[in-house]
Design a protein that fits this description.
Subcellular location: Cytoplasm
Family: Belongs to the MurCDEF family. MurE subfamily.
Distance between the termini: 41 Å
CATH architecture of the largest domain: 3-Layer(aba) Sandwich
Mean pLDDT: 96
Strand content: 15-25%
Radius of gyration: 25 Å
Bound molecules: ligand UAG, adenosine-5'-triphosphate
Number of strands: 25
Structural class: alpha/beta
CATH superfamily of the largest domain: Mur-like, catalytic domain
Oligomer: single chain
Enzyme class: ligase
CATH class of the largest domain: Alpha Beta
CATH topology of the largest domain: UDP-N-acetylmuramoyl-L-alanine:D-glutamate ligase
Pathway: Cell wall biogenesis; peptidoglycan biosynthesis
GO cellular component, one term: cytoplasm
Helix content: 25-40%
């Protein structure tokens, strides 16, 4: 599989380093030899591990270590020049390296614009949509991509799950890649003929300049909930970092969900023009919003939702979310308004979103109800709040019993294990407790902690099962369920591996669920033969 760092254009432009120095006011340190006028560069990176031949290595002062510490590795991998700050230049000189060095007061801020310049500003040739917020980024981004795909032959979608350009996808190292990697991927997308890109923009990315150098056509805000305060300090700091996306150098216009106070604050203070969307039916906030969800119900397919979206002109549009639950009505409404702002016809956007049910690991409909099989869903919910939301979303679409396969991560928040158990026992009917990513912990001990919470809520232990492998848990769940039931497998979502005792085993809930269904279909056919 291609590494994310290799997602770059096949035919990069070549730039003279002296020209880059002049354009970005980079200076040669006083005691260094002047730049060779013939020296050229074709790419940019901030990580020595990602260097390609001909790269500029931008060595940033990190939160833990100075990037210039890795200049030797970068040069060995093919970097032709190091751009860093004054402290970095001292480190490179101290290491006795002969590589040319250029100094910038703020290399982290520079990395994005420099990479955008080197790759010929690919973002300007694409329709670009960015989505930020605590929850719903992935789902909304895929809904937007579905709408963009209805209007463009080739698109790119970038986020937590994958980096996908046309039909080529690689696993994503994080929600928003580093600024130079982003520009490289955009350049690749342009080279492959893509017309549009939808991407997730995390708060870390905004704080660390990963989208600098790109001005989005449209950006969206989902919501803000308590998260990542270790990094952002407090909610105000977290909000300020998110709000950086709504600035003229980052985006031309925005769409903001105003269901929470943070969305309302953002809409009221945004320096770029924004449209507002209210998604809670009956909330008076909807009266003043440009767009409002004024009715929502379970969809005709018995899984998703239908809803009515009132537009700024008062017209009512019948729309649908293919995924269960009201949070996905919210995500779908935002995506429709974002896609429209990005130039997709409203009716086209509504239709495309209504059919976008293959979002990897986000309430993903893997097995449809029927032929004796339950509805089978895979969801990433791995926190108590998300588990509540997921189970509440699935209950109304479940005529029979709600069967939950779940576990909890090792080497992470131990306190949530019994809480997850309690929630599961309260909101699901049949539980199969199993392993998630045990990492260095004893899997049985993690399951025991979950089961303690289960017992507190359901002392009888009725319909509570334990399975020592996740694949077995899925097999058990499917064997226990009828076609009136729903099986939901939570915790790992799209993850392609399971981490056990330091080893990453290839494993994916969706694949296993499909394999188990196929096994059962075969077994049934044989028993009828
Ligand atoms: C907290 C955080 O976001 N840290 C980011 C920050 O790291 P840092 O300043 O500590 O970097 P450092 O380790 O001190 O290294 C300094 C520089 O040396 C470079 N280096 C380092 C080691 C090496 O061998 N070679 C090398 O070149 C690094 O690439 C870096 O440029 O700057 C680095 C690049 O300049 C990022 O790679 C790094 O992201 C780390 C890996 C990370 O895990 N970030 C997570 C928290 C993150 O960004 N998450 C969000 C999603 C959050 C969510 O919503 O859940 C995301 O967008 O994925
Ligand atoms: N609009 C929403 N409001 C609140 N919760 C939501 C919303 N959309 C999704 N969720 C919940 O948040 C979880 C994560 O959803 P999603 O992956 O789309 O968000 P995200 O912002 O991309 O988060 P992550 O980066 O962790 O993937 C889901 O399990 C779902 O239960």
């Amino acid at each position: 599989m291609t590494s994310p760092a290799r997602m770059r254009p096949q035919h990069p432009a070549t730039h003279r380093v002296v020209d880059l120095a002049e354009t970005f006011a980079l200076v040669v340190p006083p005691d260094a030899t002047p730049l060779d006028e013939a020296l050229t560069a074709t790419g940019v990176t901030v990580s020595s591990a990602d260097v390609a031949d001909g790269d500029v290595f931008v060595a940033v002062p990190g939160l833990k270590v100075h990037g210039a510490t890795y200049a030797a590795q970068a040069v060995a991998a093919g970097a032709v020049v190091v751009v860093t700050d004054a402290a970095g230049a001292v480190l490179v000189r101290g290491a006795g390296l002969s590589v040319p060095v250029l100094v910038s007061p703020d290399p982290r801020e520079l990395a994005g614009p420099l990479a955008a310049h080197v790759h010929g500003h690919p973002g300007r040739d694409l329709v670009t949509v960015g989505v930020t917020g605590t929850n719903g980024k992935t789902t909304t981004t895929y809904f937007v991509d579905a709408a963009l795909r209805a209007a463009h032959a080739t698109t790119a979608v970038l986020g937590t799950v994958e980096l996908k350009v046309g039909d080529e996808a690689v696993e994503s190292p994080r929600t928003t890649v580093e600024a130079p990697a982003l520009q490289g991927i955009l350049a690749l997308a342009r080279e492959r003929g893509a017309g549009a890109v939808a991407m997730e923009v995390s708060s870390h990315a905004l704080a660390l300049g990963r989208v600098r150098g790109l001005t989005f056509d449209v950006v969206g805000f989902t919501n803000l909930q308590r998260d990542h305060l270790d990094f952002h300090g407090d909610m105000d700091g977290y909000f300020r970092d998110k709000a950086r996306l709504f600035a003229p150098e980052q985006a031309r216009r925005g769409v903001v969900v105003v269901d929470d106070e943070w969305g309302r604050r953002l809409a009221a203070t945004s320096p770029i023009p924004v449209e507002t969307v209210a998604t809670h039916v009956g909330d008076p906030v909807g009266d003043d919003a440009d767009w409002a969800v004024v009715a929502a119900d379970i969809g005709l397919d018995g899984v998703g939702s239908t809803f009515t979206l009132r537009g700024p002109d008062g017209a009512r549009h019948e729309a649908a979310s293919p995924l269960p639950g009201l949070v996905n009505v919210s995500n779908a409404a935002l995506a429709i308004v974002l896609a429209r702002a990005a130039g997709v016809e409203l009716a086209t956007a509504i239709d495309a979103v209504a059919h976008a049910h293959e979002i990897p690991g986000r309430m993903e409909r893997v097995v449809e109800r029927g032929d004796g099989f339950p509805l089978g869903l895979v969801d990433y919910a791995h926190t108590p709040d998300a588990l509540v939301l997921a189970l509440e979303a699935v209950r109304p679409i479940t005529p029979g019993r709600l069967v939950l396969v779940f576990g909890s991560d090792g080497d992470r928040d131990q306190g949530k294990r019994p809480i997850m158990g309690q929630i599961a026992a309260r909101l699901a009917d049949v539980l199969v407790v199993t392993d998630e990513n045990p990492r260095s912990e004893d899997p049985a001990a993690i399951r025991a902690a979950i089961l303690e919470g289960v017992r507190a809520e359901r002392p009888s232990g009725t319909d509570v099962h334990e399975a020592t492998s996740r694949a077995q848990a899925i097999r058990d769940a499917l064997a226990l369920a009828t076609d009136q039931d729903t099986v939901i497998i939570t915790g790992k979502g799209h993850e392609p591996t399971q981490e056990i005792a330091g080893v990453f085993h290839r494993y994916n809930d969706r694949d296993v669920l499909l394999a188990v269904r196929a096994e059962s279909t075969r077994a049934r056919a044989e028993s009828h033969a």
